[in-house]
Structure formats: C-alpha cells, structure tokens
Amino acid sequence: MKNVKRYLKVFQGIKLPWMLMAVVLALNIAHSYMLLEQSALTADVIDTSQKAINGQILIRFIAVLVISAVLNIATLYNSGLMEQKINAGVRTKLWNKLMRLPIRYYDQEGGDSLVSRVTTDTESACSYFNMAISTVTAAYAAIVAGMRMYRYSPKLTLYSLISIPIMLILAVLLGKLTFAASKKFQVAFSASLGYLVERTRNLRLMKAARMEHGEQEAGRRRFDRQFRASILSTIANTCNTALIPIFSLITIVISFVVGGQLVQAGEVTVGKLVGFYTLAGMLGQRTFQLMDIYIIVKRTNGRMAKVAELLDTPDETAEGIEMDVADADINVRDVSFSYGEAPVLRGLNCRIPKGEVTAIIGDNGAGKSTLFKLLERMYDPGEGGIYFGGTNVKDFDLTSWRQSLAIVSQDKPLLSGTVRDNILYGVRRKVTEEELVQVSKQAGIYDFIMAAPGGFDAPVGMGGGNFSGGQRQCIAIARAMMRNPDYLLLDEATSNLDAKSEQQVSQALRNLMRGRTTVMIAHNYSAIREASHIVVLRDGQVEAEGSPAELLETNAFYREFVNKAG
Amino acid sequence: MRGRTKEKASYGSWKGFFRLLGSINLPWPVIALAFLAEIGYSQAMLMMPGTTASLMSGSLEPEALRSAVVYYVGYAAVLFADFLMLGLAGNWAVRNARTKVWGGMTRIRVDYYDEHTPSALSSAVTNDLQEAVSSLVRLIIQVIPAFYYIFAAMATVGQYDVLLMLSVLVLLPVKWIYMVAVSRRMYTASTGIYHRIGQLTGYLAERVKNLPLIKYYTNEDRELENGSIAVADLFTAQMRSVKVNCANSGIGTAINLLQHLVCIVTGVLLLQAGRITIEQWVAFFLFSSTISSRFGELIGMWQSLKSLQGMAARAVEIVEAPQEQSEQEAKAVASQEAVSKGAQSVEFRNVSFSYGEKKALKNVSFTVPAGTATAIVGLCGSGKTTLMNLLERFYEAGEGQILLGGGDAKNESLSNLRGRFSYVQQDAGVFSGTVREILTYGIRREVSDQKMTEAAKSAGAWEFISKLPGGLDGQVSADGASLSGGQRQRLVLAREFLRNADILLLDEPTSALDAKTASAVEETIFRLFKGKTILMITHDMSLVRNMDQIVVLQEGELKGKGRYDGLLESCPLFREMVEMQKMGVELA
Fold it and tell me: What's the CATH fold of domain A330-564?
C-alpha cells in the first residue's frame, strides 16, 4: 500500500477527469444492477406462471435487456474517454519532465528505455482508476447479490458460503501455478527471441563459419524448451478455465440439493431457487473479478514504478548568471569524476585557450569523452571545477551556457521533418532564404539539397536514413553554423566516413571552425592537423599539454600518433 | 485512410496454405485427439440446455438433479481435456513449424536476406508463425465441431417446433452480412487509426531518442509544445479508435438483442399456443444464444483466414526460398573439418556481377599470389565488399571465373569452399555465449583449453579473457556488447587463428577502432596470419603502403593494380585518394 501511494504521486498535478470517472462508475453500477434485475425477473417469470408467461413481466424483461445493452455501450465509450484523458495527462507530464531531465539520466538509462516510458508505460496509467471503479462495482454487485440471496433464503445463503473458501483456495493455488508457468514461459520465450534476433542480424557469420546445421540444432533446442514451458502454461490456463464449471457444479449442488429439500419443506419457492442459482453464479463471477484485481495492481505497479522514478528525478539546475559575451579561456582545475566506483578523471588540469583549436587525444578509456560531457555540463565534476574566465561554469544559466556551444559528434543525429527544419533546429530568430542558402553553401550541402525533390523542404526520414553519412554530417554542421556558437566541441566528427565524404565533411568543418574556439576529440592525426594546442590524456589525467611542436619533442604518445599518419 | 497495408502476392490464395501444411509436419495424432476432445465439448454443450432446462424451469425431480450433477462433472472433464489438447496441439505445431522455418532460414541464399530486415526475419519465425500456425491448427480442430454443434442444435430445436428453428435461422444472414461488410469497414477504419497512432508514438520516440540534441540546442520549450501537440493528436486518434469500437460493438449488441427478442417473442407465442412446454422454451432460449455465438465464431474464423493467409505466406516464402544447400547436405558437413590445401592463390578472371539491375562489378581480373597480401581500395559502392561476397559464394558469380589455386571455385562444394576462408567483418561478429563457444564457433575438431589459451594470447585477447569471471567459460553478452570493439575483434582473430583457414578475407577489420587499437590489431593480423593469402578491404591509405599488391576499384571497374609507389604514378584515382587523405591531414 505504501508503494501504491508512491505510484499515485504520478498523478499529482494532473487534471484528472473526476466527473467522468463518477459517470463511468455510475454507468457500471447501473449496468450490474440491470444484470441483477434480469435474474430477479427470471425468478418472477417462473413463479408467477408455471404454464403461461405473464406479458407484463415479459415486457419488463425486454426493457431490462435493452437498457443493459445501452448502458454497456455508454460504459464502453465513457471509460474509453476517461482512460485516454488520464493517459494523455500522464504523458504530457512525463514529456515535460523529460525536457527538464538531466542528460546524464538519458545517458544511463539509454534512449530506448525512455521511449517505452513515454509510449507503452503510460498506457497503463489509467489502470488504477479502472481498477478502483471495477472494484467498487464488483463489490457492490457482490453485496447486492448476496443480500438478495439472503432475502430469497437465509439458510441457503449460509450453506453456499461453504463454497467460498474452497474456491478461494483453488484460486490462490491456481494463481501461483499460473504465475510460475508464465514466468517460466517468459524466460524461455525471451531466450529464443534473443537468439533469433542476434543470429538473423549476422547470418553471414553463420554461413562463413559453415554453422547452418549447428545453428538449426541450437534453434531446435530453444524452441523445444519454449514448447515445454508452454505446456505448463497451457495446463495452468486450462485449470483456470475449468474453475468455472467446477464452480457451477458446487453452486448447483448447493442450490438444488439443499434447496430442493427447502422447497419440499415449503420454505422457498421454486422460482426463488432458480433466482438464487443465477445470483450465486453472479456472486461467484464478481468474487473472481475481485481476486484478479490484486494481480492487475501488481502489474500496473511494475510499470508505474519506472514512471514514478523518472518523475522523482530532480530537474536540471538551469538558473544562473547569463553568459557575458567576451571570450575567455576555459580552465579545467583539479577535476575528478567517476560514474560509479572507478574514478574516470583524477585531478585533471588543462587549459582550452580562446580562439584556438585544441585537440584532446588519448587511448580509449583515458577520459576524453567524459571531459566533453563535463564541458557540455551533462555531469558536474565530483571535485574541482571548470572555469570560464574566472567564473565556475556551474554558476552560469544552463541554457545560455549551452547556447554558446555547438557539438558535432560522430552520431550525426537528424530529426524527421524537412531539411529546413533540421538546419533551423533550435533557431529562434527569423532566418532569411539568403542566409539559409549561404550557410548551406558553406556547409557543402547546397548542391545535393537542390538536387533533392523539394529542395530545402525535402523530407528527412526518421534518423535521416535517406541521406548518406557524409551528407547527414554536413547537414548537422549547417545546423551548428546557424546557431553561430562561440565554442565548438567536435567529437570524432569525421570518423566512420569514406575518404571522399571525409574530405567534404572536413571542408565544411573548416568553414564552421573559422573564428571559433574549438575543442576536438580525434582518433587520427589527419583530423587534428589544424590544432594549435594539444592535450594528451592518460588514465584520467593530463600527461602532456602544449603546442604541437613542443609535444613532438617531449611526448612519446603524440609522436607515435603523428607518425602513424605517415 | 492512409494506412493501407501492402500484401504479398500470394495473399488470398489457398495454395500457400496447403504448402505450409505440407511442409511443417503437423503433429497429426495430437491434432486428432484435440479434434475428438472438441467434438466431445460440442456434444457437452449440446446436452447442457437439456440437462439444465428442467432445473431452470423449476423441476426438482431427483433424476434431473442427478443427471445435472453427472453432467457438470463430465462437462468439467471434457472442457479440461479440450482446452489442454487444443493448447498442446497448437504449441506443438508451432514448435515443429518454427524448427522447420528456422532450419530453412539458415540455409537460404544470402540475396534473400538482403531483401528483408533482420527484425522482419526474426518476427517471421516468432510472432507471425505463432499466430499463423496456432490459428491454422485451431481452424482444423474447430471448424467441423462448430458446424456439428450448429446443425445438431438446430435439429434439436426443430424437434421442439419448426418455427423455433426458423426464428434462430432468420437473423443469421443479418449477422453474417454485418460481420462481413461492416466489420471489414471497421477494420479498415481502425487500421488507419492504428497507423496514425503508430506515427505519433514514432514521433515521440524519435524525440526522446534524440534528447541530447534537444538539450544541446536548448530547444526544450519548442519541443515541449510539439510534444503536447503530439500527445493531443494521439489522444484524438485513440478516441477515434474508441468510437469505432463503440460503434462496432453497438451494432453487434443490437443484432444480438434483436435475436433475443425474436426468439423470446416466438417462444412466448408458441408457449401460449401450447405447442411447446416451458421446459422446451427454456432449453430453446439457451440454445439460441449459443448457436448465434458459435455462428459468430465461425464467421470470425472465416475472416481470420485472410490475415492468416498473409502471415502463412511469409513462412511459406522462407521455406520455399532458394537454398544454398539441402538439409541433408548441411547435416553431412556439420562434423567435417574443411580440407586445407595450404596457402593458395586467388584469381578473379573477367568477373562481372550485378545486384538485380545495379552493376556492381564489371569485368574485374586480378590475381593474389599464394601467401601474399593484397589490399582492395576504393570509395563506398565501388564493389569491394562484392568481391568478398563472391569469394564466399554468398552470391553466385554472374560472369567470369574465380580460381583458387588454379582450380575453378565453382567445382568445390559450398561448405568446403567456405571452410577455406577466414572472414573478418568490420564490426566483429561474435554471438553471445561463453568465450569458449565464441573461440570454437564453426570449428569441428576438438580444441584443447591450452590451444585456446595460446591462440587468445597471441591474438592479444588473453589479458581481458583472464579477467572475465570464469575465464574461458566467462559469458559475453548479446552481440558481444560487454566487450569493447577492439576486444571483440581480438576474439575474432583468435577464433580465425584456431580455425586456420587457407585464405584470409578482411573487410575493414579496424575501421571501427581507434587509431592506437587499430594499429595494434593490424600488427596482430599480419603476425598471426603470416604466410596466408590475405585480401583486405581498407580505407586507410597509410596501411596499404606495405602490402604486396593494391587493387583499386571504382564503380565496379578495376582502375589499377600494383604496389604503392607504382600505383601513385600509374593510377590517377589512387593518387587522388592518397592525396585526399593527406589533404585531410593538412586541412582538417
């Protein structure tokens, strides 16, 4: 319960459709009342006329049928509306949260899992309210059915109470079986799915290694395991289905065996007995429904826990002083940092001189990317600080700090939309067509954009898949140019490109870098040839720092780095 | 609606259906048992009104009671057997089908894979097959018993009074028309809505995935607005789907209601006329609703046939796609080590090849002498990887000959041919499993731990293997993601070293690695595979300087071959490529 309270916090600050919920609840209750009426009428039909049918009762019966049908549809519509309103509310709240979320959260969680937070997990946000409504309805129907049963025959009602513990025990046992079976099935299922996904992604490896037969057998083993797991869950499902006739059996025995004697003793009428039987069936159904609720709550909690956790994450601290325009050196002072246990940066000191091109080189795991993440203020340094002029960058307004930077990484992310949307991404001012053309030319994208159908309005598919890697990178560079930043962070901007694309991207980058302070990470010398300041990282510390000429003399790593290029 | 789905050519044909039935060896005995159970279930359903009607109409004869109790015990047993057998038969058939289709998939020609995304392929074996085969089995088991139930129930009701039977019959055509015509329209409408919902969730997903971009461009406010619009649109689309559902079930409920009314009125009139007893009336009432629901089931099955055919078509397509080798052949070579013929020359003689319309190689000829190393250079799309594909015979060569050690490669069995190559891809291919499994993947002979350790040591992989919990039995996760690119590539090199094939094919083996790791891996390659015939695709012009031969390709044509210095003079394209990279060095 304590947990549920925590999950309910998800709904704080959302305008919940209380009126609609009340309407849905009322409709549900009315509908279940109509079902109860049906059974009462059946009893009346039998009692009033053993031989002929009373026309008035018949009309009432038909009326009840019609009203139930109408109520049913009304419930369907209104509960649909209610669910979607609640989901949309949670989704909007989550979306707002995502926009204020520290990027490091994204970094740790991974984009895909955040996506399922927004798309799938929010789908079950309405479950709590549905459940509350169906709990109230089921409880109401169960109580009314029980009361009516009591009114028909108190003795019979007491007898039928015997069936409740039996059914409860059966249901609990079955619930356990079902849970175990479905868990086992899930494990087997994801094992064979994972296997298939991995293999189909690289069938050439399988073929080159001539493992066709081996893989067929390996697949067979996994499908066999899945099959065996499915037998258990089939049995569990079958038992669940068989519960209903078992329950009918029990109620029939109680209603008619015990009830028959009561009729003979003149305590109950035959019609009431039949009515009792139907009511007992309804009571049983509602009891099952109430028992299911626990399982649904548990499942919903599982999904909401993740949403709740995300909503509980503190926002990025955005406020601070505005950036002043004057360029200054960036100084990294005694910065230590770790993602978890192992330290990544250890007392790192270096300088990024204004107006120059600084290259950061070092082995994998030396801390280059981490240093970038700190410069981007994705994370804050554990110890020490990064200073812009004399000010700790932490003190600047986050938005204005980020606005003064542009990042070009090897991911070259484009968003779906048009080419124009992508170039003007994040630009608030009005941009003239001339400026757009000029920037496109500088970034070397003008020609192929003009060749694309629609020019600047040519569509960009999801992830920019309709453009080549080099073209995507050049569009990303145009986007960075539009932003007109003072500082550039280039994270292997030319890697994973073929020679010709690399040359085009380099040309575009050169235009972008003109007149801006640039920091770059690169894995080969060709990319950093223009750097006037080099920082060599090793194991989270600065091994050497200085001009290329100095380092060529003093630093072995740099010398090797240069020599590699031939 | 925009979301019209494209269907395969075999859509709507029964042929594919029967072909699938023929090829997946269905578990007929289990299906037969399930069929019997289903008949039993129909029989039990038929008996239900008869046994319970007397109770429901108020008779309390001990005989009626006893038979009701006996009936329910029997009913529970039959229901249990039916469900169990149905589930068992379905899952059994799915398992058989899956094994068959996956087996086929392992042997299909590579050009088939090119036309399908990996996720489409794996879903063909998982979801589609599950759905298609289990529905198919259900169909086989349930159709006849459902008809049996409807006819028998009609006959029983007809025995009470023919008019009763007619009153049930009269609305069945209406129901049929409704289900076929209206629900098809509903289906189209809801497909459109789902398509729209898919688009909108896709939109949100894309933004979430690019959260860093949004942040770096400080575009949160605008995205906030866009997001709210998308959420609102999503709400509208989903409400449209709710409305369609409501309309759908509204009409359905109305028809059922009408059915009820017709039955009640007919029953009451007959009752008053004294033509039936009240017991018969109650029984009839119970029958009429079950008949109509089973009729609905039949129509549902009929409708599902369409989509079932579509799904089955994909499985059929895989099973029937051209295969490289038969199951027997694959099995036969499963335990055979490839015959090594020592380092051998590789010769391309006037080889041309095209992927469909697109020409990939045009009359290419060159020879890699035994035991030497040749680099293949060229821009993207110049046909470099196609050369490797043809060597491995992933595709049948169009024109010309490929000679290994002077003999036509065509004359060699596929398996033997592939056994003579070591193939190292750009982003190293390792499947998840233990280090031991990875190192011996595709190796038929027993490999001792000592050999594995030695190979790992010489490939520079031992350092991290020994740090894994379990050492050689340590787990490497899916796609080798728990290792770095360099570590994965070293594992691959150790594996290929153990494999000891005659000819080494390297497709940009170091391009995914950083400079230092790349040069270390290159060093390892040339040390480990010294004396082997090597073909290496590369972008790195500094690497090719020391190769025995360089082959330059441009748009499928051979533009030059020779050593570095010679090519600098004779091949303008090569010169340009070297200069471009140098210029990159100078400019960037």
Answer: Rossmann fold (3.40.50)
Residue B392 resides in a domain: yes
| B contact residues 28-67, partner A, Cβ 8 Å cutoff | 55-58, 60, 62, 65
Window 476-515 of A: residues touching B by CB (8 A cutoff) are 479, 483, 494, 496, 498-503, 506-507, 509-510
Amino acid (1-letter code) at residue B94: V
Distance (Å, whole) CA A244 – CA A289? 12
Identify the three-state secondary structure at position A384. strand
Closest CA–CA distance from residue A347 to any residue of chain B (Å)? 25
Q: Looking at the structure, do residues B151 and B212 belong to the same domain, yes or no?
A: no
User: Are residues B260 and A65, on separate chains, in Cβ contact within 8 Å?
Assistant: yes
Output the CA–CA distances (angstroms, integers) from residue B30 to A347, A505, A507, B19, B99, in the order listed: 71, 64, 69, 20, 18
> Rounded CA gap, A59 and A40, in Å?
14
Q: How many domains does chain B have?
A: 3
Per-residue pLDDT of chain B (588 residues; tens, 9 = 90+): 333 333 333 344 667 777 777 778 889 999 999 999 999 999 998 988 877 777 666 666 777 778 878 888 888 889 899 999 999 999 999 999 988 888 888 888 887 777 777 777 777 788 778 888 888 899 899 999 999 999 999 999 898 888 888 888 888 888 888 777 777 777 777 777 888 888 888 888 888 888 888 887 888 888 888 888 988 988 998 898 888 888 888 888 888 888 878 887 888 888 888 888 877 877 887 888 888 888 888 888 887 777 777 777 777 888 888 888 777 877 777 777 777 777 789 999 999 988 777 788 889 999 999 989 999 988 777 888 888 888 888 887 678 889 988 888 888 888 888 888 888 887 667 888 889 988 988 888 888 999 999 999 888 888 888 888 888 888 887 555 567 778 888 888 899 889 888 899 998 887 767 667 778 888 888 888 888 899 999 877 878 888 899 999 988 888 889 998 888 889 888 888 887 776 554 443
Name the residue among B27, B142, B39, B40 with its Cα closest to residue B89.
B27
**Does residue B512 share a domain with residue B538?**
yes
Q: Please return the burial class of A30, using the count of CB atoms within 10 Å of its CB with bins 0-12, 13-18 and 19+.
A: middle
| E strand or H helix that includes residue B237 | helix B220-272
Q: Per the domain annotation, does B490 fall within a domain? A: yes
Whether residue B91 lies inside any domain: the answer is yes
User: Do B128 and B174 belong together in one domain?
Assistant: no
Which residues of chain B have a CB within 8 Å of the CB of A199? 431
Q: What's the CATH class of domain A2-153+268-312?
A: mainly alpha
- Which domain, by its residues, includes B120? 13-161+307-323
**Cβ atoms of B290 and B43 closer than 8 Å:** no
A residues 448-467 closer than 8 Å to B (CB): 462-463
Last residue of a domain, one of B235, B251, B275: B275
Residues of A in contact with B380 (CB under 8 A): 468, 498, 500-501
Question: What CA–CA distance (Å, rounded) separates B568 from B574?
Answer: 6
- Same-domain check for residues B178 and B148: no
Buried b (16+ CB within 10 A) or exposed e, B294-318: bbbebbebeebbebbbbbbbbbbbb
Do B483 and B376 lie in one domain? The reply is: yes
Q: Which residue of chain A is at minimal alpha-carbon distance from B504?
A: A208
- Same domain (yes/no): B146, B260: no
Q: Chain A contacts of B478, Cβ < 8 Å? A: 194, 198
**Do B150 and B166 reside in the same domain of the chain?**
no
**Which CATH number fits the domain that encloses residue B542?**
3.40.50.300
User: Which residue among B392, B429, B586 sits closest to A202, beta carbon to beta carbon?
Assistant: B429
Q: How far is A2 from chain B (nearest CA, A)?
A: 30
| B-contacting residues in A 313-342 (Cβ below 8 Å) | none
Task: Identify whether residues B132 and B229 lie together within a single domain.
Answer: no
Does residue B403 sit within a domain? yes
Nearest to A92 among B125, B223, B231 (CB): B231
> Is the predicted ipTM greater than 0.90, yes or no?
no
| CB-based contact, A240 to chain B, within 8 Å | no
Residues of B in contact with A275 (CB under 8 A): none
